[in-house]
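Aim 2 progress update. The chain analyzed this quarter is reproduced below.
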Amino acid sequence: MTSFHAAIVHPDRSVTYCGEVDESHVATVRAIADIEASPRFTREHASRPGSLFVLREDGDLDWYEPVGAGPYPVHAPDPAPRDVHTEELPDGEDLPRGASGTVWIPGAIRIGDGSIGGAMDTPGNPPRVTLHTTESPAGGRYLESLSSYLISVGSEPQLVYCPVTDRVAQLGPLNQSGRALRNDGSRRTNREGKVNIQIEVLAYAKNPWTTGWDPAQKPGWRSILAAARSWGVPDAFPAGPPGRYPGPDKPRSRSVWQNSGGFFGHCDIPGNDHGDPGALDVNKVLGRGSGGGTPTPPADGDAFPGADHFGPGADNGYVTRLGEMLIRRGGRRFYSVGPSPEWGDADRQATAAFQRAQGWSGSNADGIPGPTTWELLVTGRGNDIPADGGGSQPTVSVAHLIAAAQRDIPAPDGHTTYPDEVEALEDALVAEGLLDRSYADGSFGTRTRDAYAAWQRSKAGGSYTGSAADGIPGLSSLQRLAARHAFTATP
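Predicted structure tokens:
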């Protein structure tokens, strides 16, 4: 029969050794913890079979380790640590040169010796926050016992948060990496970005912790947000809101993870297979109050920011917010990797689908939000995007485009022949980056002709040259363009 060393790890990380116990004692401990009303919760060691931890509501952590097990390193060695030149700050903290932002959150409970990961591998990449759930109870002093467990198994985040008590524990400096993520091959996901502030929230993913939780009443959480913002972490979820747990896996895009700043769920990280933190209310996470059916305004209000914040080349927080609002209105299928600050064709297609759902067409459904589109999204009014994509697609006739080119080009500027169909064509050329938005006016002029010639030469399979790339649409090249955008090509 296996014997176990028994010890108690106290909230201050001091350890009381209690001697050896037998296997039946450990079985009894497990049985007591399995009782639904028990204030104890068991966790296995992630890499040492047989080692058992019992989280207690009073903050103590019971630890049972098989007798004869090998030496137990509390901290695994930091693999290939980088040299970090430091300077002594007035308060005695060491901060890497060039760093900025809050390192230790005022009022947070420090647990452990502060030794977690190391320097970031890609400090030139955007800053981010990664959200986890502990799959454990909240309240009481589980914050201390869970933190002790994470330190003991070498899986420390920088922060542990209890949504019931609003208490924050800090296990290490925010400018160092945590240890709560798996690598993505040789890429160390813990060390991605200027900072990667990992937060373990005392909660179960199947029961989102934002339910019934009001950030306005949680100064502890607001202190976490303030610290994240001090490092420049955007108020955005680049990979989209975390999905329901259990539920289908979300795409884990390496491009989004490596190149976008903001808040991510464990479910978004490449190289990892966890589904936490569950379907959180992202507006609450960002401190804005409940999202519900009406997105809560950002700090500068709900006012339409202007059309120049959208379209090819746009890269700002309004684009992210647009995508989040469109997803809530039925546009999820357009986003394979979730909204991001960088404008993409998914944003245009989802916006156009929403506009068509209102019964609009032509230039009113061009996929670029105007004041009315923005107001409907912000207030939650108007029609949602239906499953069929938001109304029938506009039809663009090759014969009509040819007629428009023959009549509009020699006519005075602004002359139109089939303006709605030409605008649908021009919107697609704008989305392809071949035509400036200011020339998408429904007139098939020389700019439109030249843009379509560029489409024929470089985008439509590369098979059009000479007179075949004269800028006058044919059915084959138009069908290829229509397949990428929201219209139907006809003879």
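Confidence is low (pLDDT under 50) at residues 80-99, 291-301. The first strand starts at residue 3 and ends at 9. These observations will guide the mutagenesis experiments scheduled for the next reporting period.
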